[in-house]
Write a structure and sequence with these properties.
By secondary structure, the protein is mainly α. About 75% of the residues lie in helices and about 5% in strands.
Length: about 475
């Protein structure tokens, strides 16, 4: 199912696992590259903020968590769009796919403007709820105000990226987000630090070059402003592609951008459970992070750095989950449920191999990742133990990500929502509070709770997909 074939609504003749692997890889690799760029540049972002100290790291973490919670909700709403677009593309119904995408744009713009306004107005209250300690709170409020103001652009980018992926176009979101993230790093250099001269020694010679770099010296605020600007750029690139006719779905300024209640209802029928799932997961993670924040600034900084390092393993999981969503949806639309099932299993198999390999590195040399962000010996020790713990859960994390993606592509979002509630709230959050408050395990207890959650959700996802009820869901 190469990109050209997808654009023409042609289905390849796939008959065996090897063919499905090739198709899955072609869809997954751009998404993996996109996630790789985001992760590597996220590393650079955290390293730059990390150079300002533990208070800055904690401030960015506290300000970023609520934004990611909100983003997760709208990313889930885009699941409804992706599933419907994929079904229509698979059934060769291009006009219906385009109208679905148009309605999603309307939802994204209206909801994004409302959320941006609310985050700006209630920034102080949000950070207070997060349990920020006095030294980090002012910086966290500054961070969430700037990034919250750009939520409308982030939501547009996420929702329209879902449209493109439903068509099988995973390259455009990769290019848009990759370019925007590079600009984010450049913006960090110019906005975080003050103007200064830097001496660069030329290897293997006695020469050195002195470079003067201008800087605004805004610190945490500079990191937030740079992030906001990069999200604006990503959304503009994605919209340009959709309006230029270079995508399988084409918008024009002559289109009627009126609300179609029937289409929005179908989108929300799939997307609302997915949004509730993401909301429950993100709120659970936010409360989870809040509990860790109460352990102190150093412990929370260790926690954030370990989470950032762990995001390396998300790269293949993210890519293969998106491939599973697209393939399952398109094959169901083409009335080929057996191919949908095969594509889900093959995507999980590939994710399992990649993520288990990364888990081995996490377990045996965690410091390789942790020392990218900090040299503080206490933070390095705490974060390394956390990374070793999550290493053993990588096969289950693969099942959580990929089978969730496959089930969403089929429209089985209600089950994924219930599974998330059980795992995040019943296992991770409750377990963390018990292990910290009753057994005094501190950060170790928090990460044991996370690993237990992944074990449960991964197992339940596999059993649901194996059961096959998702093949008969009408959307």
């Amino acid at each position: 199912m190469e990109e050209v074939e997808l654009k023409k609504n042609k289905k390849p003749n796939i008959t065996d696992s090897h063919d499905i692997q090739k198709v899955t890889m072609k869809l997954a690799m751009p998404a993996i590259m996109e996630m790789t760029m985001q992760t590597l540049l996220g590393f650079a972002d955290m390293a730059m903020v990390g150079s300002l100290g533990a208070v800055a790291i904690a401030a960015v973490g506290l300000g970023d968590a609520p934004i990611m919670t909100l983003m997760g909700v709208f990313a889930a709403l885009s699941t409804g769009t992706t599933a419907l677009v994929a079904r229509h593309i698979g059934a060769k119904e291009n006009e219906k796919a385009t109208e679905t995408a148009r309605q999603s744009l309307i939802i994204g713009v209206l909801a994004g403007m409302m959320v941006s306004s609310l985050v700006w107005v209630f920034a102080s209250q949000i950070i207070a709820f997060m349990g920020a300690q006095a030294e980090a709170a002012p910086y966290a409020i500054q961070y969430i105000k700037y990034t919250g103001a750009a939520m409308v652009f982030l939501i547009i980018s996420v929702v329209m990226g879902g449209v493109l992926r439903g068509c099988g176009d995973t390259k455009t979101p990769m290019y848009a987000n990759g370019f925007a993230n590079i600009l984010n790093i450049i913006g960090n250099l110019l906005l975080i630090y003050s103007s200064a001269s830097h001496v660069i020694n030329i290897p293997f010679t006695d020469y050195a070059i002195t470079l003067f770099l201008p800087g605004a010296g805004m610190g945490v605020g500079g990191a937030a402003l740079s992030t906001a600007l990069s999200r604006f750029i990503a959304s503009m690139i994605t919209l340009y592609v959709l309006f230029s006719g270079k995508a399988p779905i084409k918008f024009t300024f002559r289109d009627k951008y009126k609300i179609n209640k029937d289409i929005i209802k179908r989108i929300l029928n799939i997307g609302t459970p997915a949004a509730l799932e993401q909301l429950s997961m993100r709120v659970g993670q936010m409360l989870y992070g809040r509990k860790v924040a109460m352990l102190g600034t150093v412990m929370y900084a260790s926690h954030r750095i370990a989470l950032t390092a762990e995001s390396v393993s998300f790269m293949p999981g993210f890519g293969f989950a998106l491939a599973a969503t697209t393939l399952v949806g398109q094959y169901l639309g083409a009335k080929k449920p057996e191919m949908s099932e095969k594509s889900g299993y093959e995507a999980n198999k590939l994710a399992l191999v990649f993520m288990s390999a990364i888990g081995l590195v996490f377990f045996f040399i965690p410091e390789l990742f942790i020392r990218i962000f900090t040299r503080d010996p206490e933070i390095v020790t705490n974060a390394s133990v956390s990374l070793k713990l999550v290493a053993i859960a990588q096969p289950f994390l693969a099942a959580v990500m990929v089978f969730s993606g496959a089930l969403r592509g089929a429209g089985d979002t209600r089950y994924v929502m219930m599974n998330t509630l059980i795992g995040v709230w019943g296992i991770r959050l409750l377990g963390t509070y018990i292990l910290i408050d009753l057994f005094n395990l501190g950060l170790l207890g928090a990460w044991i709770g996370m690993v237990a959650d992944l074990f449960v959700r991964g197992t339940l996802n596999f059993l649901r997909f194996k059961g096959g009820k998702w093949k008969y869901i009408r959307i």
